[in-house]
């Protein structure tokens, strides 16, 4: 079987080889090994495009076993986390509301650099725009970025979270169950590299969410999160160049309203793609009993009461 994948700019190929253990002479064999493994898994309904499989290999630093576990978890989450992955339609009212409010705004992509995006709390009433719809939108954008840019698997993702506007309603919407799903999706299932998360405009209410979120993370991932009481200033610009940030965040880039409009059109153009993508998932009744990801899913099917706030 002939393996065909996209070539990379020299700078990105160097990162792939030195940081991700990619060996151009071995890529074809590794992709073929992954395809053979997929065919041997009765519970997986997975995409077989070579470029798609390569993303999992890169995100696993070319450990075949880690790539298998990541892909298995990726499709399993699409089955059991239906609040995030069911009905992924850009035209759903709740997704349109989140899009128009700029809940998630990818920034212009620079070749060979990490993908950068802004996650905003916004001033929309949480009763109208739930935490689940924000996370669903975030995952939809990650899928689009994975389709269009190799940077997110090779150079990584830098996320800017603006916690300005966090209220007790946001806290009450948050469950440990949902936070656990988000953690598994972003750090262990999606074939991306999380480079850093910068949280600005921290308030006393936002600190409550921090106290719930941080204990769920590994020490490695905790070290990649940075908190700022204000807007981050010069330290933030080291990770988010001012020419990419919109004026609303102190930069000289494209205004936020234009970025929101551009990304809305982009996501809506993937409407048919999301419909087709729904067929890729896992069939849990067919899962082998010795599946290595069972421990990752322990307790995920259980439920947590919503956090009570006095």
TrEMBL record:
Source organism, top-level taxon: Eukaryota
GO cellular component entries: membrane
A Pfam family the protein falls into: CRAL_TRIO
PROSITE patterns: CRAL_TRIO
Residue ranges occupied by any CRAL-TRIO domain in the UniProt entry: 135-251
Gene Ontology MF terms: phosphatidylinositol bisphosphate binding
Signal sequence residues: none
Name of the protein in question: CRAL-TRIO domain-containing protein
């Amino acid at each position: 079987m002939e393996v065909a994948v996209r070539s990379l700019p020299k700078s990105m190929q160097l990162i792939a080889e030195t940081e991700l253990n990619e060996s151009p002479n071995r890529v074809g064999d590794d992709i073929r090994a992954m395809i053979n493994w997929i065919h041997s898994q009765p519970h997986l309904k997975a995409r077989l495009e070579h470029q798609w499989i390569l993303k999992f290999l890169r995100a696993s630093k070319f450990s075949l076993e880690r790539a298998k576990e990541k892909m298995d978890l990726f499709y399993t989450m699409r089955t059991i986390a239906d609040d995030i992955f069911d009905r992924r339609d850009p035209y759903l009212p709740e997704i349109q509301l989140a899009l128009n409010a700029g809940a998630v705004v990818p920034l212009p992509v620079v070749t060979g650099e990490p993908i950068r995006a802004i996650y905003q709390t916004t001033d929309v009433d949480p009763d109208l725009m739930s935490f689940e719809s924000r996370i669903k939108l975030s995952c939809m954008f990650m899928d689009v970025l994975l389709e269009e840019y190799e940077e997110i698997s090779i150079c990584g993702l830098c996320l800017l979270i603006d916690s300005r506007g966090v209220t007790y309603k946001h806290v009450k919407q948050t469950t440990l169950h949902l936070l656990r799903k988000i953690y598994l999706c972003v750090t262990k299932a999606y074939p991306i590299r999380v480079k850093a998360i910068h949280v600005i405009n921290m308030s006393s209410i936002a600190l409550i969410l921090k106290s719930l979120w941080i204990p769920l993370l590994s020490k490695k991932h905790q070290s990649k999160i940075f908190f700022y009481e204000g807007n981050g200033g010069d330290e933030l610009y080291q990770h988010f160049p001012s020419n990419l940030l919109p004026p609303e965040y102190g930069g000289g880039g494209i205004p936020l309203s234009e970025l929101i409009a551009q990304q809305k059109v982009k996501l809506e153009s993937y409407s048919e793609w999301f419909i087709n993508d729904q067929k890729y998932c896992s069939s849990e009744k067919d899962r082998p009993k010795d599946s290595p990801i069972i421990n990752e899913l322990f307790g995920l099917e259980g439920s947590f009461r919503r956090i009570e706030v006095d």
